[in-house]
Amino acid sequence: MNVADSELVMGILKNKGYRITEVAEEANVILLNTCSIRENAEVRIHGRLGNLKKLKENRADTVIGVLGCMAERLRKRLMDEQKMVDLVVGPDEYRRLPEFIDNAFTGEKGIGVKLSRTETYDDIEPFREEGISAWISIMRGCNNFCSYCVVPYTRGRERSVDLESVVADVKKLSERGFREITLLGQNVNSYNSEGNDFADLLASCAVIDRSMRIRFSTSHPKDISEKLLQTIADHENICNYIHLPVQSGSNKVLDEMKRTYTIEHYNSIIDKAKELIPNVSFSTDIIAGFPNESDEDHDATLEVIKRSRFNGAYMFKYSPREGTKAYNLEDNVSEAIKTKRLSEIIDLQHKISFENNQELIGKEQILLVEGSSKKSDQFLAGRTDSNKVAIFPYSEDAGVGSYVKVKINRATSATLFADLIEIVLPGNEKINLTA
Ligand code: SAH
Ligand code: SF4
Predict the structure, then answer these.
(1) Intra-chain end-to-end CA distance of the chain, in Å
(2) Ligand 2 touching residue 220 (CB < 6 A)
(3) Closest CA relative to residue 242, chosen from 221, 257, 260
(4) Could you tell me the domains of the chain?
(5) Looking at ligand 2, which atom is closest to the CA of residue 155?
(6) Relative to the CA of 219, which ligand 1 atom is closest?
(7) DSSP for 279-300?
């Protein structure tokens, strides 16, 4: 989401004539787009600002700005603590960035942290490098107020981008040769644009270009609908892959987290999805060590991991966030126990990812080719529909953006290794919708 927001900010600034440089020492303006979701994310930004202090000492006219959730959360405090910061701008005030930057060049500091109920930036084209994968923000903010989470406070109330605007964006990206888009929102299932729900939006995007894969994130388990699952099943180019954060396997903890679903409901969604969508797979988010989490609660989390057999998971230790409801609860699971529980969760998930991948050996998969593998240009890397990375020997015909059929011959918990069988669709060809 922050990458998408940075592209938006670059879009706004490019419209004003700014250019992007990769070299901090050459920049007239340095903007850090920040995250507040866990304390660690903020600690890293403080470290970065520490490094920029030297740069500012050598070049006093460099404008340094902090954007995003940390700007929204800390506001003036951030400026008071970090003297070299010239501007602090939250997620709903990016339109005013050019004005803030102009003022900063004349030595005036600026803070813009008003949250909006309507801002979706839908008239602004984000700056996207050439490539095959793009993010599209389809909504901003969140109304859910999970008790541990800072997002509703730093990104404001939920609002959806118009369906027509998202569709126009997908069309443009298709014309530019993009092959995969990921629709982004904190809770895409509650998307609503003039009566169109998320399933309607997905279907409208899927028919634009059948050679474009459609992904989405994040689905909140409380309002995933059968219509949505059916829509995923009905369109071959909507990936059969659902990121469905469970957070905990214990109903007691889920209740205290204010997630508003039970583990039985969560399991029923997984079962329904498996029934409706052939080869569907899931990933999840898990928090270890929420206040009052007992050994039994933790065991219930291990249970849901075993039952769901996720393809992957983002796994975190609970991090108390000031201003949230859970902040008032005592953070009473010791650091040692949090560490132990998290490593049990990670070990179990790795084992399951490994087993899931082993099951693919000998099977054929369709990959979207992304380019050379990270380790060697003798190999190409692509992604399966289920978002797994697969590596196969270089072939001139398998250009970036092409779809290839491969056969998996080996697998670790993180990577599949494959042999190329055939090119299904070259990178520069599209499937004709009416064919
Ligand atoms: N909107 C998405 C999640 C956005 S935040 C959803 O509801 O699923 C991404 C993940 O960060 C969350 O799913 C949660 O697992 C984790 N997270 C959020 N706040 C946290 C906190 N205070 N401590 C630890 N992990 C947290
Ligand atoms: Fe945070 Fe919950 Fe909203 Fe996700 S749904 S962003 S976890 S408040």
Answers:
(1) 35
(2) yes
(3) 221
(4) 2-112 (3.40.50.12160), 364-425 (2.40.50.140)
(5) 6
(6) 8
(7) T-EEEEEEEE--TT--HHHHHH
Ligand 1 site, residue 186, Cβ cutoff 6 A: yes
Element (H, E) at 203: helix 198-206
Residue 427 token pair: 């990178």
- Kind and range of the H or E element at 411? strand 403-411
| CA 392 to centroid of chain Cα atoms | 26
Q: What percent of the chain has pLDDT over 70?
A: 99
Can you say whether residue 289 is alpha, beta or left, with left for phi > 0 and alpha for psi between -120 and 50 degrees?
A: left
- Which one, of 62, 80, 75, lies nearest residue 34 by Cα? 75
What percentage of the chain carries pLDDT values higher than 90?
96
Atom 21 of ligand 1: nearest residue by CA position: 319
Average pLDDT, stretch 68-76? 96
CB contact at 8 A, 378 and 394: yes
CA distances from 304 to 277, 307, 324, 343 (A): 20, 5, 26, 16
In this model, does residue 432 exceed pLDDT 80? no
| 221 Cα to the center of ligand 1, angstroms | 13
Taking the C-alpha atoms of residue 50 and residue 55, their distance in angstroms, rounded to an integer, is 10
352 CB within 6 A, ligand 2: no
pLDDT, residue 259, reads 98
Angle of the 335-358 helix axis to the 295-308 helix axis, nearest 10: 10
For residue 235, pLDDT over 60 is answered with yes
Quote the pLDDT of residue 433: 53
Half-sphere exposure of 316 (CA within 13 A, CB side): 19
CA distance 131 to 433: 23
Ligand nearest to the CA of 327: 1
Q: Judge whether residue 222 has pLDDT over 50.
A: yes
